[in-house]
Write the structure tokens for this entry.
Amino acid sequence: MARTVKLETRLIIWVTSLCLMQLLVFGGAVYALLSENVHAQTGQKALALANTLASRPSLRQQVTAGYIDNDLAHELDELITLTGATFIVIGDTQQIRLYHPIRERIGQRMTGEDSEPALFGERYISTALGSLGLSIRGKAPIYNEQQDIVGLVSVGFLKVSLEPLINDHGMQLLLLGLLLVAVSVLSAVWISHRVRNAIFGLQPDQIGRLFAEQEAIFNTVLSGVIAIDKDGTVRKFNQRAAEILAIPTTEKAADLTLQKLLPEHSQYLLANQQVPIRGFELFAAGKRIVMSRQVLQVKGQSDGVLLSMRPVDEVEYLSQQLTKLQAFAELLRVQTHDYANKLNTLGALIQMQAYDKAIELIGQESQGFQAQIHQLLACINEPVIAGLLLGKHHKAREMNIHFEVSADSQLSSLVRKDILDPLVSILGNLIDNALEASRNAVRYRQPMVQVTIDDVGNNLIFDVEDSGLGLPTDLETIFTPQYSSKQGAQHGVGMYLVKTHLDVCGGSLEVGISELGGARLSVYIPKQL
């Protein structure tokens, strides 16, 4: 198995390699430019010196006379030393040397075959191979007083003599380049440290796997998810969100905004982004949607919001299943507690050999339970509703609350079987709220809950009355997901679910004052649509 190279090592190698490549490329280019510049400056220096000598009157006179005396020759020798030139050569019109730093070469013909243009009046720089080697030369014609050309001056610098100067500059350039490489390595280490901290210490292969896992999870969750910037620009959305909001498959996240997806609700969803929203119901893409909002934070800083959504019918289905489970669990818990007390009492009576009392207690319990069942079955012909009422009866007795199903109640078998689950949720939530309200008002009156069911006419009517303290004056607030008169994370959704199920059934709810002293909630559901 190949060894994984750490991100820090990769960055150091990449940055260092890049710097070395740049050093080689740019260093070579700069060295070439440096060499060219030194040669150009040397040529200009040689030409300037040649022009200066060619304009000296004494030199003009002696060249016209066809000789260079010793005094002028010594001056020229000193000038070579002072200027650092390799040679100064004075020639006549026949290119015969009148002066040369090597005296043995005086009287010989000038070499290099580059002197001809000077005898025609040109002043120029040339590079030629002479008797001393390859050199850069500056050449200028010499004029007499009648402005006739009588000779030429050639000043030269051997290219070999320029190499130390170029190499010195090149060494400085190399040292500077190595310094830049060292700085680059240190910068790469610092950058890798910053990058590692920014990506939470993860390595590239870990990031790749994490991204693949995140994509798989993101697109397989049952909820639609949309990540949004602070200004409403969509960063990303999963396949489920595209299905729920009917986003075309050709649309890309970068081209979408929340204003475009949810124009009627975008302002609300983008306001107060630090405050979470749970269970916000809206209508979009031709369907009712339950949406939640959660702030996105990166290292403690807000970086947009995350929207999750589900169609209302899916939420309702889950709510129905949850309501059923809670109802059955509550019934079992209450009955277990109730019968445990009775069994303890029976056990004590038997130990005391009070067999008659034990038999009497068993008879009372059996008769009372059977009487409740007979009463419910006589007026309630829907077994699920009857079972719900029986369970609530046991729960009320455990809470020391008088629970009563009105003797005038009547419920035949339901024609609309599709409303049975919503009915269980509606009636169960209303009774639970009534029991809680009655218990809260126990200091003021005897706790009591009364339920009346009627199916006369075109509607099913459920009345739930309690002896509590009543409902708030602002009735609209009780149907919001956040409202609750109780404490705890599981509260605050009962009346919202009642409203949701009533919308599904096409029903309505009326709120009034009960004769028991508390609230009276009346539910009307049409038997047929």
About this structure: The longest helix spans residues 7-54. The CA atoms of residues 360 and 366 lie 10 Å apart. The chain has 13 helices and 15 strands.
